[in-house]
Every structure is written in C-alpha cells, then in structure tokens.
Amino acid sequence: MSHQLAYVIVTPYSLYKSRTGGILSRLISRTELDLAAVRMFAPGPELVRQYAETIVSAQDPQDRKIQELLREYVFTNLSPDPKTERRRRILMMVFQGDDAVRKVRSVVGNLSPDRRGGETIRDTYSDLIMDDDGQVRYFEPAVLAAPNAEEAEAKLKLWARFSGTDGGVLENVVAYPPGQTGERTLVLIKPDNFKFSTGRPGNVIDFFSRTGLYIVGAKVLHMSLAQAMEFYGPVLEVLRTKLKDAVAERAKNALEKELGFKIPPEPQKLLGDILGPLHGDNQFENIMRFMTGFTPSERKTEEERRLPGSQKCIALIYEGVNAIRKVRDVLGPTDPSKAPPGSIRREFGSNITVNAAHASDSVENAQREFGIVNVGENNFRQIIEAAYGKL
C-alpha cells in the first residue's frame, strides 16, 4: 500500500526534556508527509502490556537484543509510576502519505551503541550506553515507531482502541511542590506554519518549551468557520471601532492626493465613522479566511459553516505555574513589528493576522477557548478508522 499511515510515539523522557519540537521539525521537513493527527496519552497498565507484547518482531531490522530492550523499556517507562501511581505523558503523532512508514522510519533511525552522527532522530536524541562487558548501563530510545506497514496498522488500531480511556486532555499527570498550583492555557500553532513542509511548527513549539510548562493536550485542528467566528467573535467589535482613526487618516490622505485639497478634521472623523466598521468587517473576513480557508460571505448556511476548514492548526494545552503569563511572554504582542527579539511573533510572524501562534490571554478566555476548540475530541480514532475501518 503506497498511501499509508505511520506513527511516532514521543517518549515520556523526550517530552520531559522538551524535545518534541525538534522531533516534529525533522519528521515534517524530511518526510514531507501530512501530519494527520496528534494526541496525548497517559497509558494505563493494560495498554502498556498489549503494546509491549508487539515490540519483538521478526520483521524489525533491529537486532533481537535491541527489540527486547525496547520491550523492557516500554514496560518500565510507559507504565504508571509504581511509587505514586501517576500516569506518564506520551505524545503520539500520525503521519499520512505515500510510503509513510518507510519515510518515517528512515527519519527516526535504528538504535545502536555506535552513534554515527546526527542524521536521524535517534542519532541525536537517543542513548544506548554499554559497559566493557557489553551490559546496558543506560537506554533511552527517544521515540518509538513501527518497522513496517503491517505492524503500523496493528499498533495504530491498538492505540486507537484505548484513545478514549487513556488519551485526550490529561489529568493529574503533573506534580507540583507544596503551595504551588498549576493553570492551563490554549496555544494554536497557526496555518502560516503549515504552508510548506518545513520545520516551522516544531520550531514554534521549541520556543514555547522555554516556559518549562507541560503539554497535556494536543490535537490537529481544521477549524470550522463556525468555530472561528465564535473564537474570534470578541475581536470583531474591536476591529470595527479601534481602527476608526487609522482608517480615517488613510482615507483622508488618499482623498487629498486624489482631489487636490485638504480635508478638515470634522469630515475626516466622519470618514472614520463610515469606513471604520466596513474596514473592521473586512479585517474579520481576512482572519476567517486565514484560519479556515473560507469567509462568512462564502459559507452562508449554518451547515456549511460547521464543516471542517481547509487550513491546519495544532491546538495544544499547556499546564504549569503561571502558564498564561509565561506563554504570552514567549509569544510576544499581536503585531510582529512590535514584538521583542527572541519572541515567537518577532521570529515567525508576518503581520497582525499572519502572526504564527495564538495563546489565551486570561483564565476566563482560556476556558472559553477550550470549549470552542475541544482539544479532547478524539479525531485520532477517526483518522485510524477512516484508514482501516471500524475497530
């Protein structure tokens, strides 16, 4: 089968070390596959057991001893912590396209005590350290991936069956010192990052890793027009009123140049009153097109507006102490030209609309946005079932 699904599991250690962005960057830019789904999991004992039992395979090109190491690693490191019973976080990515399994595996690489350089993800992020007697002292595979299409299908079906009970927006996976509490915030990696098969989505996630926060929810989002209109609804009135003076100034300058006479302050104000709301509506339509691929004037019925848009985002939920402030500090202000050096919008944004990422600006707005975007929605299972049929 040329058109395939392939998966990559980012291990708890790679997540803890904030290597997610670097891993995603390599997978997107080097495979040029479509990122079809992402989902956070906190695997329970039964999922871990069933997955571990599939690790050792005659079809895997890796040495049998390496496969047995991987099986033991899965049992030990994906299971809940035996001391606290707290489940561990993993991130599962699903890629789609021609020859997807081989392409993903070539970027992931195999495991060996003899590191060859930094060509593959495992070359860079994994460790297999052995002593002089050939005994393993330390082992971290960084990511897990299937060796062939048949095993990719079997393992994806397994994870999809547990995706409702063991996956979604994770609870009680972050431990806090006494006296500290966490909060949650929503981040959208916006469509401008997916225009080409580059490492930009992962690079943006890398910037957010500087916050020291934890990803507890993830979803590939094709925002519908109905979602976008609700999500950005509070912005519409601001656009219609806040930009009146700027619109009036631009209109005055254009008319004076065209007509050859000066326009007094009172008529200039009237220009703002007339044109400001129209300009705001136009800006709102531009935002809708950017986020969904469509505008309200193009999709007029409620049924049409509820259909998934053509543009891709990644929706992430970050958790930690002062999460909203920390994320906003790294993101920078809405206008990239006013963002400080080293911020996401300064590095990746183009203008006020095309500005790389969104982040909630308050606890109240975070809650409102969670309800609209619904990061816990199980479109991971939908993708698996669309490819292989009902589970």
Key features of this structure:
391 residues; alpha+beta; Alpha-Beta Plaits; four-stranded antiparallel sheet; 10 strands
Could you characterize what this model shows?
The chain has 2 domains: 3-222 and 312-349 and 358-388, Nucleoside diphosphate kinase-like domain (Alpha-Beta Plaits, 2-Layer Sandwich); 228-305, no CATH class. 45% of the residues lie in helices and 16% in strands. The chain contains 17 helices and 10 strands. It has helices at residues 12-16, 20-31, 45-52, 64-77, 100-108, 121-125, 149-161, 200-208, 225-231, 233-242, 244-259, 265-292, 302-305, 323-331, 344-348, 363-373, 379-388, and strands at residues 3-10, 34-41, 90-98, 127-130, 136-140, 143-144, 183-189, 214-221, 313-320, 357-359. The strands form 3 sheets. The protein has a 4-stranded antiparallel sheet with strand order 2-3-1-6, sandwiched between helices. A 4-stranded antiparallel sheet has the order 8-9-7-10, with helices on both faces.
Strand proportion: 15-25%
| Tally of helical runs | 17
The best one-word shape is elongated
Overall tally of structural domains: 2
CATH level-two architecture of the largest domain: 2-Layer Sandwich
Proportion in helices: 40-55%
**End-to-end CA span:** 20 Å
Strand order of the largest sheet: 2-3-1-6
The H/E string reads: EHHEHHEHHEEEHEHEHHHHHEHHEHH
Cα-based radius of gyration, to the nearest Å: 24 Å
- Structural class, please? alpha+beta
- CATH topology value of the largest domain: Alpha-Beta Plaits
Low-confidence stretches: none
